[in-house]
Amino acid sequence: MKKRFYCLPGVLVSFMMSLSPSFRFSNFILRMFNSEVEKNITIHSAVRFILPTRMKIGEGTTINAGSLIDSRCHVEIGKNCMIGRGSKLFSLGHDLDDDFFKSVGSKITLGDGVVVFPYVLIMPGVIIDDNAVILPGSVVTKSVPRNCVYGGVPAKFIRRRECNPSFSHNYNVYFGV
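^ Acyltransferase, sequence as received from the core. Prediction below:
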């Protein structure tokens, strides 16, 4: 039986970031251990990470309070994304057909300009393409095309977005809320 040993830096980074009230300090810690995280991101307080050394975050992205990012199988978040309060991204789960529920998972990808409203669950292997919107409380189990709005449990197509937004986030506050 193969055992998984998780890297110590990832565990330490997760612990230090969970105690930080300042998003500037959280950004500093995250970037110290992960070169694939851009400078101008906002991570609010009480955001939890599982192995933050295995993720990529584009500039202008905001991750709100109470969110959980499980990047054991890698998570890639594009530029200018917004992840709402209490949202959870799981890159690892279990095989329901295995007698011992072995761990299975795959990379989660969020394109540029993706908006994930509060309390959304995003499951392993999901790709959410550019400028897509996920409505509050949705469970995303399948990939979402560009410029589409999805919602529900499980998340289903609601409508196409008529606009093609091009914006940039820049939060100049000292403490996340």
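Residues 113 and 131 are 5 Å apart (CA to CA).
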